């Protein structure tokens, strides 16, 4: 619960402080989160390893929990300071006294766009559910698929695949944070969704033909699955103001998608094997892609109708 609350609050603070640079800021935050996921488990290795000990239990095992508690306390202090300082304490925050006429028009337009709240946030949550499912199935099952499939990979190779997949996802978030300065998020999101589905199909058709093909497809696929979920938040910010409600819906969709994909993927893997679980992964990505395209079409149609009614009233 503490991690989830802290994650939501951190993202909301970033959106409020860097309101004009939401995309790069949120993706950079997600990239640092991915770095934590990569290096966090490595911190515990020296304390839980007991290869040179005759005892089956390491007496230093409590130290990772001490480190975790220190990190939680540091994050709590940081959030408390951010609450005391507030968004107005940051130089990049736009105060009410500095709002120009053009910015007032943009604000009015954003208020009109906020009427899409009923459509944008639930739709974003639905799409993110399938996005996270198509990302979590490889993230959790790649080592098992490599070992149990006809590839017959050894444990070290399968763990390397997972590590490279995580690194690929992290790098993709950093690249996306830079790319958003030049390319609209309205282009980045569908591109990532489509490419995720395409490479998931490649993984299903040719991923199990050889170990090099498995490595290559997984790494490339990670470049598109990595930033997609965070890009959905940035996309959502194009139509409404991302607040605690939007972030909470996004986080719930993330967690439910992870839980569902792990359960369904694990059951399919145990019962039907590696090939069918890759097909489930492709179907999840394809549903997410189609759902987003339908959602984007509905929002675009709604926006055009709203602008047409506004012009008639003027």
UniProtKB/TrEMBL annotation:
Q: Does the keyword Transmembrane apply?
A: yes
Would I find Transmembrane helix among this entry's keywords? yes
What Pfam families has UniProt attached to this entry?
MFS_1
Keyword annotations: Membrane, Transmembrane, Transmembrane helix
Alphabetized SUPFAM superfamilies for the sequence: MFS general substrate transporter (SSF103473)
One molecular function GO term is:
transmembrane transporter activity
Q: Which residue spans traverse the membrane?
A: 26-48, 60-81, 183-207, 213-236, 248-269, 275-299
Record protein name field = Major facilitator superfamily (MFS) profile domain-containing protein
The opening ranks of the lineage are: Eukaryota, Metazoa, Spiralia, Lophotrochozoa, Annelida
């Amino acid at each position: 619960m503490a991690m989830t609350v802290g994650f939501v609050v951190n993202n909301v603070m970033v959106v409020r402080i860097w309101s004009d640079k939401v995309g790069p800021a949120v993706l950079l935050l997600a990239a640092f989160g991915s770095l934590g996921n990569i290096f966090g488990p490595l911190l515990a290795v020296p304390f839980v390893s007991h290869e040179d000990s005759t005892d089956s239990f390491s007496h230093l095992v409590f130290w990772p929990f001490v480190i975790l508690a220190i990190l939680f306390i540091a994050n709590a202090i940081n959030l408390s300071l951010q609450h005391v300082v507030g968004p107005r304490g940051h130089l990049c925050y736009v105060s009410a006294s500095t709002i120009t006429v053009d910015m007032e028009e943009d604000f009015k337009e954003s208020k009109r766009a906020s009427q899409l709240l009923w459509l944008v946030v639930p739709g974003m949550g639905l799409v993110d559910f399938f996005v996270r499912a198509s990302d979590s199935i490889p993230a959790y099952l790649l080592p098992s698929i490599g070992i149990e499939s006809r590839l017959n990979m050894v444990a070290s190779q399968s763990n390397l695949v997972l590590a490279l997949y995580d690194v690929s996802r992290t790098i993709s978030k950093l690249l996306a944070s830079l790319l958003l300065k030049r390319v609209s998020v309205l282009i980045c999101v569908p591109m990532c969704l489509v490419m995720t589905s395409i490479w998931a199909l490649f993984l299903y058709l040719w991923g199990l033909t050889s170990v090099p093909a498995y490595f290559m497809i997984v790494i490339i696929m990670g470049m598109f699955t990595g930033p997609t979920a965070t890009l959905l938040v940035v996309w959502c910010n194009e139509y409404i103001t991302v607040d605690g409600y939007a972030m909470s819906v996004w986080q719930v969709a993330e967690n439910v998608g992870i839980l569902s994909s792990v359960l369904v993927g694990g059951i399919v893997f145990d019962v039907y094997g590696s090939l069918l679980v890759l097909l489930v992964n492709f179907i999840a990505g394809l549903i997410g892609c189609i759902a987003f395209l339908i959602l984007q079409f509905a929002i675009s149609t709604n926006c055009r109708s709203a602008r047409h009614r506004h012009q008639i009233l003027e």
